[in-house]
Specification:
Strand content: 5-15%
Largest sheet: 2 strands, antiparallel
Radius of gyration: 13 Å
Order of helices and strands: HHHHEEHH
Number of helices: 6
Structural class: mainly alpha
Strand order of the largest sheet: 1-2
Length: about 110
């Protein structure tokens, strides 16, 4: 149930959506999500502590979704897709995340 609490925080879905498109630096996430730095910092720390997001191997590259983060993002997007009319943005992101997950699975 802790995961539901984590993803319910304000700004979390915006950060997951942003990182779903690929690794990003703090400022890139901030500008894309329009979250203030304090909230973004809190969201990222919570997501890192939950194993959903990690720092990139080269810390200058910023943050990225973990395998767990990709799976969670896919589940959430599929729930949103069922509950709302299918939005092309969600469909594209689902396809992108599915491809990244398959690529991670094949290299593991």
């Amino acid at each position: 149930m802790e995961i539901l609490k984590t993803i319910s925080y304000a700004g979390t879905m915006e950060v997951l959506t942003s990182l779903g498109k690929g690794p990003k630096r703090f400022t890139e996430i901030m500008f894309e999500t329009k979250l203030n730095p304090g909230i973004l910092n809190r969201v990222l720390k919570t997501l890192i502590n939950s194993g959903i997001v990690s720092r990139c191997a080269n810390e200058e590259d910023g943050y990225e979704l973990t395998t767990k983060g990709i799976k969670i993002s896919l589940y959430i997007l599929k729930i949103v897709e069922v509950s709302e009319s299918q939005k092309p943005v969600h469909r594209e992101l689902i396809t992108l995340l599915t491809g990244r997950l398959e690529q991670m699975s094949s290299t593991a």
